[in-house]
Amino acid sequence: MDELIPLSDATLDRLPAAVGRPRYDRRALRPGIVHIGLGNFHRAHQAWYLHRLMQAGQALNWAIVGAGVRPADTIQRDRLLAQDCLTTLISLDPGGSSAEVIGPMIDFLPVEEDNAALIRQMADPAIRIVALTVTEGGYYRTPTGEALDTAHPDIRHDAENPYRPRTAFGAMVAALALRRRAGLGAFTAMSCDNLQGNGAILRRVVVSLARLSDPGLADWIEAEASFPNSMVDCIVPATGPKEIALARSLGIDDRSPVTHESFRQWVIEDDFCAGRPDWDRAGAIFSDRVHDWEAMKIRLLNASHQLLANAGEILGVETIAACMNDADIAGFFRNVVSTEIAPHVAPVPGMTPAAYIELVARRFANPAIIDTTRRVAFDGASRHPGFLLPVLRDALAAGTQIEGLALAEALWCRMCAGTREDGSPIPDNDPNWASLQIAALAARDRPAAWLEQSQIYGDLGADGRFADSFGRWLTLLWTQGCRATLHAYGANGGDRAAVLRAGR
User: Fold this and answer.
1) Buried b (16+ CB within 10 A) or exposed e, 97-130
2) How many other CB atoms are found less than 10 A from the CB of residue 439?
3) What is residue 18's three-state secondary structure?
4) Which domains does the chain have, with CATH numbers?
5) pLDDT single digits (tens) 268-313
6) CB environment 141-162: b (16+ within 10 A), e (fewer)
């Protein structure tokens, strides 16, 4: 490409003809949504749905104002503001890539320690939806996930300083307090994270936090605000030098482009107290069966992502697509997801668990998506309790097969020991990496040391069937290696006696 176009409103008409761009007048956009957590996923998913509506001349008063609550969010803010909050989306498909520039975001608030600008913006009556993508582990829940962790220092701070909060949830409470005081209605708070019952979880966190400082406000939020559940789905790799170079190869100088697969899905509970865009006109699904869609996606996609990534990290397989091209890892994925996870997943309209597994397998195997095992394995301390352990609990309760699920936990433990089988180090890959590594190394000689992490496993470590299976698999991983262990599981279908013989 001879000319490199710096991305901005002023240069949209100079972009290469093959690159899509906003047809709407961005100067006419008015804010309606604050989104906290402006990562790649939001821009490739929720922002794209809104962009599609705007391309049709709709939802022009629902523009997005971006926000962040961590100091590191300032970097993203600077990048996006420098290009007028535009983003280049590059769809990667084995048949070829395509690109479009989207523009539904119109501002990015200052990132402040007391979140004052964020609170003011959310208190504005023009804002009718506050959405979040703050990761599965960002909701300050107790180990069981059933309550707010009121002992966490950030939560204690926000309870004691409700108008100078540190957290996104504290800022939401403060903004809702201002709206109540001004006689305004509440906004809809919408989680877009991979959590089953994400709206119910968000409601519990916000209401519980409000109750610590103002029980009357908590009652008002409970009665007036909406917290719809939703299921979100699109594989969106992290952005690095390769992705920036790909945008440049298209003639676009974008500081923060986003690559993504062509598949998207968004299923939303239609519970919005202050109105909403007609996202269904852009392909989203409004349904009163969100829980079933969530369960299918979280259990068959997110859980199986961990099956691939943990084994891939141990064996030095760098991408998810490469894991799907590895017979041992792919065979493990296929076996566990089909025989141990799918029995605990209900069908949804137009999709059986078996058909969804085939869809997931095709998406994971897409070689154009450079989705690293490191990214997928990140924050296992949130992802395993959120994605795999609920299935394990259901299987134990039902008396069904758990050998592959136990092996999945053993693989994660082995990965957290911090070295691959070729001896190379696995860099820190979890906010709790230090404690995980201590437990993983102790578990080499005493497997129960891993399961004693009650903040992750709760009472599962005391289940004899699971603990016995986990210990056998972990011992086999250390004594025979990862490939031999995967072979043992695949050859014996997880049969206990056969596995014991293989380990001798």
Assistant:
1) eebbbbbbbbbbbebbeebbebbebbbbeebbbb
2) 19
3) coil
4) 5-288 (3.40.50.720), 291-502 (1.10.1040.10)
5) 999 999 999 999 999 999 999 999 999 999 999 999 999 999 999 9
6) beeebeebbeeeeebeebbeeb
